[in-house]
Amino acid sequence: MAKLIALYKKPEDQIAFDKHYNEVHVPITEKIPGLREIKVTKFSVTPMGKEAPYYLMCEMFYDSQEDLKNGLRSAEGKASGKDLMSFAGDLVTLMIGEED
Q1: Strand 2-8's sheet: what is its strand order?
Q2: What are φ and ψ of residue 86, in 5° steps?
């Protein structure tokens, strides 16, 4: 199973970020062809009690690397990417991984 991981740094306005993320970005992303599941994790602190270096992580699961690539190339994938850059381009790090 392939996955696209988005790690977000802490936004200045967490309320505005959460509102846009949940009400606009996730609904756009959910329409990407081949996307099987989305898991979102909000971070609070590290095991040492320090502030986490990231605010939020989103894992997007696909059956294969090919499905992931095709999804990102689709009109829906491009719309998701465009929206992402408009509200979190300076906050997000994207990575592609493979689950064993």
Answers
A1: 35-42, 56-62, 2-8, 92-98
A2: -75, -30
Give the closest residue to 32 by CA, choosing from 76, 2, 91, 85. 76
Residue whose C-alpha is closest to residue 60's, from 35, 85, 31: 35
Give the side-chain half-sphere CA count within 13 A for 3: 18
* Portion of the chain with pLDDT greater than 90, in percent: 95
Structure token digits, residue 100: 């064993």
* Integer Cα distance of 3 and 88 in angstroms: 20
Q: Provide the whole-model pTM.
A: 0.93
**pLDDT tens, 16-26?**
999 999 999 99
Query: Who's near 29: CB < 8 A, 6+ residues apart?
Result: 35, 38, 60, 80
Q: For 49, how many CA atoms within 13 A lie in the half-sphere containing its CB?
A: 0
